[in-house]
Specification:
GO terms for molecular function: nucleotide binding. InterPro entries: Gfo/Idh/MocA-like_OxRdtase_N, Gfo/Idh/MocA_Oxidoreductases, GFO_IDH_MocA-like_dom, NAD(P)-bd_dom_sf. Residues 128-263 form the GFO/IDH/MocA-like oxidoreductase domain. Residues 4-120 form the Gfo/Idh/MocA-like oxidoreductase N-terminal domain. By secondary structure, this protein is an alpha/beta fold. The chain has twelve helices and 15 strands. It has helices spanning 13-23, 38-44, 54-61, 75-84, 99-112, 126-136, 156-161, 172-187, 237-241, 297-310, 319-338, 345-354; strands at residues 4-9, 28-34, 50-51, 65-68, 88-92, 116-119, 143-151, 191-199, 210-217, 222-228, 255-259, 263-266, 270-274, 285-289, 342-343. The strands form two sheets. Strands 14-13-12-11-7-10-9-8-15 form a nine-stranded mixed beta sheet. Strands 3-2-1-4-5-6 form a six-stranded parallel beta sheet, sandwiched between helices. Helix 2 links the parallel strand 2 and strand 3. The longest helix has 20 residues, at 319-338. The mean pLDDT is 94.
Length: 357
């Protein structure tokens, strides 16, 4: 197929990452950038048309597809405008900032029949694909449970640059945990219910700095998740995968997945099992290191988006699936405040019915 005309809406940190990847490709033709900081962005990208209003980009440059990398609260409105013009979207995570706006966006995507991909880039890692394959082939048997950690110490400058991060909604649950929830849904299965507790005693901000969640999956597996931005550890997905320069590589596993026949550490991909498939606590358990190659997940994501647009592959994560990750994450924040178990099945159903024509 011919190169796909594409625009990028939002030239912040993640938008610039997409722009760097697009500059290296011949299968996409960048026809415009939209950002409110018009003069600054135009000076940095002198060979590309830059618009202060993204609607001008959509109407004048007329791209086949766009990448939406604007602030979270603008995702829904921008996606709706794209859908009404028949423009396919790669929309950064979280898909929107509220369940109500997610339902409205989903309804418009369905109504106009556009193709969508939510930018949970970890789904495109080779290590993640390898793990999903191992679980799918029953390498460790039926999954019994998962224990996971995301813990690092954010510097004071992180909060000084963006003071909103110390207020409600700016803590690690809604900023960081959503990546992990999506990973769990993708690899283990749909989340049925959650419970949680949270604390702000380390930093004393109005928002949590530490939380712990209990997770129940549809397949009967149970999970625990500890998350904190106030603890010095080597246990984050970013450090284990080496996917971001802000997080020095540790190579350590922050996930332990346990099954009837063995266990797996991730992302370091160590399998633990007993000889000859034994299931006896008196038998020794041996480790096997599994190799998986490394690719740039943002490049792989653009490859996949190209195939989604051309109709040669179904979307790995359309808007509805991204909204389910948002539902589960928001429920954990709610459960931590309400102190109760929250069943998600009615919320999934409500999302679908609210988005129905």
């Amino acid at each position: 197929m011919n190169s796909i005309t594409i625009g990028v809406i939002g030239a912040g940190l993640i938008g610039r990452k997409h722009l760097r990847k697009l500059a290296e490709r011949s299968d996409y033709d960048l026809v415009g950038i939209a950002d409110v900081n018009l003069d600054q962005v135009a000076a940095e990208y002198p060979n590309t048309r830059v618009f202060a209003d993204y609607r001008q980009l959509l109407d004048e440059a007329r791209p086949k597809a766009v990448i939406i990398a604007s602030p979270n609260q603008l995702h829904a409105g921008t996606g709706i405008e794209c859908a009404r013009r028949g423009i396919d979207i790669l929309i950064e995570k979280p898909v929107t900032d509220t369940l109500e706006s997610a339902a409205i966006l989903l309804a418009e995507v369905r109504k106009h029949g556009i193709k969508s991909l939510v930018g949970h880039h970890r789904r495109h890692h080779l290590q993640v694909r390898t793990l999903k394959s191992l679980l799918g082939e029953g390498r460790i048997g039926d999954i019994v449970g998962v224990s996971a950690i995301w813990a690092t110490h954010k510097p004071q400058s992180y909060f000084e640059v963006a003071p909103w991060r110390s207020q409600a909604g700016g803590g690690p649950v809604l900023i960081n945990l959503i990546h992990e929830i999506d990973f769990l849904r993708f690899t283990i299965g749909e989340i049925r219910a959650v419970e949680a507790i949270a604390s702000n005693r380390r930093r004393g901000f109005a928002v949590e700095d530490t939380a712990a969640a209990l997770i129940e999956f549809d397949n009967g597996a149970l999970g625990t998740f500890f998350i904190s931005d106030s603890a010095v550890t080597p246990w984050t997905m970013e450090q284990g995968l080496g996917e971001a320069v802000e997080f020095p590589f540790s190579g350590q596993g922050s996930y332990r997945l346990m099954g009837r026949r063995g266990a797996l550490e991730f992302p370091n991909l160590v399998q633990w099992a007993q000889a000859d498939g034994a299931q006896d606590w008196n038998q020794p358990i041996q480790a096997q290191h599994i190799h998986a190659g490394t690719i740039d997940p943002y490049v792989a994501q653009l490859d996949h988006f190209r195939d989604v647009i051309s109709g040669t592959a179904p979307s790995l994560q359309p808007v509805e699936d991204g909204a389910r990750s948002l539902i589960a994450t928001l429920a954990i924040a709610e459960a931590a405040t309400a102190g109760r178990r929250i069943d998600l099945r009615d919320r999934y159903a409500a999302l679908g019915s609210a988005a129905s024509p």
